[in-house]
TrEMBL record:
UniProt entry keywords in alphabetical sequence: Cell membrane, Copper, Electron transport, Heme, Iron, Membrane, Metal-binding, Respiratory chain, Translocase, Transmembrane, Transmembrane helix, Transport
Enzyme Commission numbers on file: 7.1.1.9
Membrane topology: Multi-pass membrane protein
Family: Belongs to the heme-copper respiratory oxidase family.
Name used for this protein in its record: cytochrome-c oxidase
């Protein structure tokens, strides 16, 4: 057959590589900033000004600068900027680097359309910039790993569809009959992410000319959909596509074939089938139905087998090549990456078991676990791919192998100094929270005791972040120097015979999977069916049955002011540090409930769009916060947390006190809730929403002045009714509402352990 000449497109690979490196450094900086703020919460005051004379500041004596930021540099917003940058900007761009490079060579064809490639590139980068702008402004949905509001969700979907179309059309014009294992993972990734993104981000915009939207799901239903997405974002964004890169670049770097073809088949199909079921393990002991929790635990434990099968397939590929690991920094990165993948995928199922989950959940143990995967698996795989490609793309040797080795060791130290302190902090938190005195009282009754005990580990974590960032900076220097000494090859000439047309039927003696590998459409359909099984069984029953969430007659919709306060809570990212889920443990009921002896029930959350159960307790749980502290305490706590809680690591929120609440959309919000979500507001309540809010605000301000003479005196010199208009009053109204619909003195627990 006649040989056809064509060329590979390296320019799109270079573009995604640049984006990976730039956003990688930005993501590390955001992470380092968030880590710093957890033991130095005064950082925004240092940068923008403070009225606290005990704090050093670049603009001491004037807090107006901090107020003018309107919370743009608050911890809640920095954290979501960090996670979005690392997941969507660093890891996804690194995956696109590997896919666009490997796909062309594995299929012996150029990408189907250069235009589609560049549309994908620019829409993805625009999405990231749009996320930065909106997150700094406080525009977010609060959903973990899915904080983007609806216009950005649409842009993500558009970009992902363009990517998929280009990939599948490239597969269609391939010059290689059978699809290599890496491409199986690319196909599975695309299908699963499309499904996850669309269904998790179903939301109703308040207006098509604004950013605000509300989740299509409420309470428990929102929780199960979100963690079906959240867990599988880890699975199909941070794991399966990176495994595809492992199956291509590790054998290439080691110059060895993959250890086992059969193990690759088992690894792929079992992984995408089992992974999708495991999401509910993030919701152990919550108001989620017990059957869903049990399913999540069972499949999480099963997940060890395919995960370790993939890890062993990667490491055993290096058989006979371990001598190269000593000399080759690329292989060093890959070996540690695959090892971290194995460690994280063993630890995850352990954390999913109920006995360990009740200690580890909401603690920094989970943060350590996540970052072992992110820094070790995702980061080191990305670094290995970059170091592999730079000399090839620029047709030269790496500028400094020594510098690459320095990067490796700094990165490894960074992982150790990050993960180990977080594990210790997590164990410390989990055990301190649950300790009782002989008389039945909590040993560590003051929440801050459990916070100050782990501050030293936060400092060690920051040092680990510095190591990791330093290694990244060395990589940038090395890559720039390498590119300068070489010459970039935009078009790589290649040739291969065209693919002959043959029957789609199985040949005699042809293995089933070997036949499937030359049937990409069927492979994709089977992959979709495989990931849909668990999704359908877990999600559909919960969403379709009204009785799946028992109603509680005492639970009423939020008032207009409380709904505005809840939106402010979401805007500031408060759910990053505070949970709203009292689990059925004696210690949590005693610690968080006060006079109320009830753990959280599913029926309490029927009006919560989105749910705000959280995944981390830096501060205490707030589900029973209503009435625990006076309104004046909340006012002072938001203005300066350390004035009410010595040693607090919570940032200040003075702009809430200085800024008037925007009520222009308040009636629209109530109307949307009633008309779209059937929330039982009456027409009279909607028509008098402003008066309702005025009355509630007046009552809260009256309480503040009666409780705090100093505040009454301070506001006596200001225009009457000024405080009632501020955002702080709306937030206080929401906090004072939490948990007050459920009233009982009977303590009930599912477990006393």
């Amino acid at each position: 057959m006649e040989t056809q000449k064509f060329s590979y497109d390296n320019s799109i690979v270079r573009a995604f590589l640049y984006a990976t490196v730039v956003f990688g450094i930005i993501g590390f900086l955001f992470g380092l900033t968030a880590a710093l703020m957890l033991f130095y919460p005064e950082l925004p005051e240092f940068l923008f000004g403070t009225d606290d004379t005990t704090i050093q500041s670049l603009r001491s004596g004037n807090i107006q600068g901090l107020i003018n930021t309107h919370g743009a540099f608050g911890f809640g917003r920095i954290r979501m900027l960090h996670t979005t940058t690392v997941i969507f900007a660093f890891v996804c761009n690194s995956v696109f680097v590997g896919v666009y490079y490997s796909l062309q060579r594995l299929l012996k064809t150029r990408m189907y359309s250069d235009t589609l490639s560049w549309i994908h590139f620019w829409t993805w980068q625009i999405m990231i910039i749009a996320a930065y702008i909106t997150f700094f402004m406080g525009i977010n949905t609060s959903k973990e790993y899915a904080e983007h509001e609806w216009p950005i969700d649409i842009l993500i979907a558009f970009s992902w569809i363009i990517f998929g179309a280009n990939m599948f059309l490239t597969i269609a014009k391939r010059r290689v009959r059978h699809l290599y294992v890496a491409i199986w993972f690319y196909i599975g990734t695309w299908i699963a992410v499309a499904m996850l993104h669309i269904f998790n981000n179903l939301e109703v915009p308040l207006s098509f000319t604004g950013w605000k939207s509300y989740s299509a799901y409420a309470g428990v239903k929102d929780a199960i959909v979100q963690w079906w997405y959240g867990h599988n974002a880890v699975a199909f964004i941070l794991t399966t596509p990176v495994l595809g890169l492992m199956y291509y670049f590790l054998p290439k770097a080691a110059d060895r074939p993959v250890f086992s073809y059969k193990l690759s088949i088992i690894h792929f199909w079992s992984l995408i089938f089992v992974y999708i079921w495991a999401g509910p393990h993030h919701l152990q002991y919550t108001a989620l139905p017990a059957w869903a929790q049990a399913v999540g635990t069972g499949f999480s434990i099963m997940l060890i087998a395919p995960s370790w099968g993939g890890m062993l397939n990667g490491l055993l590929t290096l058989r006979g090549a371990w001598d190269k690991v000593r000399e080759n920094p690329i292989l060093k990165f890959f070996v540690v990456a695959v090892t971290c993948y194995g460690m994280a995928t063993f630890e995850g199922p352990l954390l999913a078991t109920k006995n360990i989950n009740k200690i580890g959940h909401f603690t920094d143990w989970v943060i350590g676990h996540v970052h072992l995967g992110a820094l070790g698996w995702n980061g080191f795989m990305a670094f290995g791919v970059i170091y592999y490609l730079i000399p090839i793309l620029w047709r030269t040797k790496i500028w400094s192998v020594k510098l690459a080795n320095w990067h490796f060791w700094l990165g490894t130290l960074g992982i150790i100094f990050y993960a180990v302190p977080m594990y210790i902090a997590g164990f410390t938190q989990g055990l301190m929270w649950k300790q009782f005195n002989p008389d039945g009282t909590l040993l560590w009754k003051n929440w801050l005791d459990t916070v100050t005990a782990i501050v030293p580990y936060y400092k060690l974590r920051f040092i680990g972040g510095l190591f990791y960032l330093s290694g990244g900076i060395l990589m940038v220097v090395n890559l720039i120097a390498t590119a300068r000494q070489g010459s970039f090859q935009k078009e790589v000439p290649a040739e291969a015979p065209a693919l002959a047309n043959i029957s789609n039927k199985r040949k005699e003696g042809e293995g089933t999977h070997l036949w499937l590998e030359r049937m990409p459409l069927l492979l994709g359909v089977l992959a979709f069916f495989t990931v849909s099984i668990g999704s359908s069984i877990e999600i559909i029953p919960t969403l379709s049955l009204k009785k799946s969430v028992p109603t509680i007659s005492a639970v009423k919709p939020y008032s207009p002011l409380e709904l505005e306060g809840r939106d402010i809570y979401i805007r500031e990212g408060c759910n990053a540090c505070h949970s709203q889920m009292v689990r059925p443990f004696r210690d949590e009921i005693v610690r968080f409930n006060g006079k109320n002896g009830q753990y959280s029930k599913a029926g309490e959350f029927v009006y919560d769009r989105p749910f705000l159960w959280g995944s981390k307790r830096t501060g205490p749980d707030l589900q029973r916060e209503g009435g625990r502290n006076p309104s004046s305490w909340h006012y002072k706590h938001m203005y300066n947390p350390r004035s009410t809680s010595a040693g607090s690591i919570m940032p200040r929120f003075p702009w809430l006190i200085a800024t008037n609440l925007d009520r222009s959309k308040m009636v629209d919000k109530l109307t949307l809730m009633k008309n779209v979500f059937d929330v039982p507001y009456t027409k009279a309540e909607i028509d008098t929403a402003d008066q309702w809010a005025d009355h509630q605000a007046t009552k809260i301000v009256s309480d503040i002045f009666s409780e705090a003479a100093d505040l009454k005196t301070a506001y006596a010199k200001r225009p009457q009714g000024e405080l009632e208009k501020k955002e702080i009053i709306a937030l206080i109204s929401y906090l004072q509402r939490l948990g007050t619909d459920i009233k009982t003195t009977e303590i009930k627990t599912a477990s006393n352990n």
